[in-house]
Each structure stands twice: as C-alpha cells, then as structure tokens.
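Whiteboard transcription, Tuesday session. T.W. wrote the structure tokens on the left side:
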C-alpha cells in the first residue's frame, strides 16, 4: 500500500504575520494518521514553520541549489543547508520554475541529484500546457519530462522520490483535470516506471496538482493511481487544507 501524501505549496505567499497565523491553523487541525502531510513555505519562513508545526507535518523547500554542499553560489540555498534546517523534501521542476524562471532539464537533473545526495526527497513536478494537451501531446510531454530524470540518474532514484503530475492549464486557474483525465496520465506514468522497474512503479507515490480543493479532492484521490495531491492556493487556508488531507485519508 502506498501511503498518500498531501503537500501544500505556498509559492511566493506570506509575511511573518500571515505565516504565524497559518502555522497556528495547521497546529489546530485534526489530521488523519494514514496520510503524510507536508508544506512548502517560501525559504525565508522555513525555520519559522519547522519550529511552529511540530513533527506531524513535514516541511519542504520549493527550490534548492544544483550543488549539494554550501559554497560560493550567490543567492542559492544548498540542499545540505535545507536538510540541516530540518527540511525533508524539495520541489523539483515546478512548471512556474520551468516556464517563468526558465529552468532547463539539465538544471533539474542536477537539483534532483543534489537533493537526494543530502537525504531530501525530491518531488518531481511534470505536466503539459494547454496547447500541448489540445495537440494531444500530453503523454509525450509528460513521458519526456520523466525520461529526462530516468535517463540521467536511473530508475532507482524513484525509490526515494515523489512525482507530481500538474497540468499547467489547471494550476491556479480553477480548472481541474477530471478524475479520469488525471488517472489516465497517472496510469501512463506508472506504466513508464514499470517498464524499467516494477517494484519502483508499484511503490512510487504519484500526486495530482492543479486547482485541488476540498470540494474535488475526494473524487481525485479515489482514483487508483492518484496517491494524494500537491496543493497551491487552497493550502494557504488551514481549514481547507485540513479538509483535503482528510479526503486523502478516506
Ligand atoms: P494550485 O497550484 O492548487 O493553486 O492550482 C498547484 C501547484 O502549482 O502546485
């Protein structure tokens, strides 16, 4: 059995004050014991969140450096520093970083490897744009993004990684993939992993992300290959986030 994960990606949101309020809201939640819960605050607030939320909620970083260890790399944070702060996970390849910042596959491969070298679990985000979906290229694009990591680092790296399928057209738009649309892609991802290693495919958690909220979470998480969610906007509201976590526990 794969243990579901619900992860909140706070993106570039928050102030010391709003983060303190969100921490308090998270502490007050009744979380289901069978679900792994994580939040990804802006790096500036990682220490505050780790001190605030206790051990029940894991904390991850939204980004980390291409090099594992600290050194001369202005503006970056080494995965070893994140691990030292108490982080457990790191997002790699979120579409906002691929598209807006322009992170290349070569950079993502280095970030993924550096994070794992420091004991962090990479959450690899993959997904197609609306244009690509309309051109019926979804599986090709997602397959290529996944293969880029497999070809460079080997299938075994997914024994300690999570994959998040996030259709770009569904992120922050209020448009959600239907449970069946999401399931179809998740099933294809799992088959692609299985072609290389059946055990890794069986055990790897595949999260769905893109306008997940309490109202649609249960239906999405009910699909056989959807093992939880990566939640953006709705994770900034503790009660809403808690309801999504409970949906993953049912
Ligand atoms: P959203 O974001 O839930 O606000 O659509 C998801 C994400 O980008 O991880």
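and on the right, the sequence the group agreed on:
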């Amino acid at each position: 059995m794969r243990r579901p994960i619900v992860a909140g990606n706070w993106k570039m949101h928050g102030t010391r004050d709003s983060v303190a309020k969100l921490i308090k809201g998270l502490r007050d939640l009744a979380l289901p014991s069978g679900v792994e819960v994580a939040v990804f605050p802006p790096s500036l607030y990682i220490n505050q969140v780790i001190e605030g939320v206790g051990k029940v909620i894991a904390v991850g970083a939204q980004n980390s450096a291409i090099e594992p260890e600290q050194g001369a790399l202005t503006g970056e944070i080494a995965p070893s520093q994140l691990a030292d702060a108490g982080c457990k996970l790191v997002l790699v390849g979120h579409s906002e970083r691929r598209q807006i910042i322009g992170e290349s596959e070569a950079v993502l491969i280095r970030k993924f490897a550096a994070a794992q070298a420091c004991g962090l679990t990479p959450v690899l985000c993959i997904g197609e744009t609306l244009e690509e979906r309309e051109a019926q290229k979804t599986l090709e694009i997602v397959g290529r993004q996944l293969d880029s990591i497999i070809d460079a680092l080997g299938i075994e790296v997914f024994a300690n990684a999570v994959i998040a399928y996030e259709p770009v057209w569904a992120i922050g738009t209020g448009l959600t993939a239907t449970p069946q649309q999401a399931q179809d892609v998740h099933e294809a991802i799992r088959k692609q992993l299985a072609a290389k290693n059946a055990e890794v495919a069986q055990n790897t958690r595949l999260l769905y992300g893109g306008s997940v909220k309490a109202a649609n979470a249960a239906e999405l998480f009910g699909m056989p290959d959807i093992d939880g969610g990566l939640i953006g906007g709705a994770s900034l509201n503790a009660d809403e986030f808690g309801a999504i976590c409970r949906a993953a526990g049912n």
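Someone added at the bottom: The longest helix spans residues 138-153.
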